[in-house]
Amino acid sequence: MILAAGYGTRLFPLTIDRTKPAIPLLGKPLVGYVAEYLARFGIKDVIVNLHHQPESVKRALGDGSDFGVKIHYTLELPKILGTAGALDNAREHLEDDTFLIINGKIVTDIDISAAIEAHRSSGALATMVLKENSAREAFSEVYVEGSRITGFGDFPDPNGTGNAPLMFTGIHILEPRVFDYIPRGVYSDIVPTFYNPAIRKGELIGAHITDARWFELSTIPRYLEISLKLLNGSSERMIVGRNPKIAHDARLGDSVLWDNVTIEDGATVERSIIGDDVVVRSGEVMRDVAVVRKEIIESLGTIPEKALRGEVVGENYIVSLKQ
Asked: 308, 12 in Cβ contact below 8 A?
């Protein structure tokens, strides 16, 4: 099951007209990378949960055949259900066999086969795939004794010392018996609904620790940084979508251009994300910003609380990445 129902508010305004997993990454929707990743390990039947901008995910994935999988969608209405609620909503597809859940906003080369083998050999009710949070970023700490998860903490101290804390990668493997802990009709996350009660009861919750490459695209600066990093050292440092119109004397570098972008004579775009159909006029300088057309902002009632604030400049809505 790929989790794709979230609002992606920290990626606003890039997620006004699409959910976070539907944003483009190197010419593909992010959720398409996740689907292809699963297919490489022989996982062919995939459930994708939907809530915010559901059609954007359906347009990105279709029936899954372009990515080597077969997709069944579940819709969460009128409210988003949380991870536990998402599982309850897909219960009929999951309750007969071991299943895997993966976040729809990650790029990784974690060996899923090794994680599944570790899960099965341990006899655990569930296994969470973890990795060291060496940079002590804002991911909740996971406490482990041996290969057993014992609990969950807050974000680590960014100035802390000693061993790096462990963090959850967004990949976990579960047995159908987890539904004994998930009530029908629940609106809740999976940690308070399943993991915490199961740990208190003495259930074996396994920890599979990996040092594989892993990226999570949850904020606009992170999206830009990781997109450029995935170019693997290319000197061009540019990602350009479909149907660009770029003047020969425009200055471009370290940026991501989505579809149908126009960059006029003498314009500058550096360390920026330029959304669909945006026109950067002659002489304009877009540096360390995310830009979308102002029309899609004007149709919105309020700016999400966690979103970076921007301003309307001419035809565009511009958000500084230096906030």
From this structure: yes
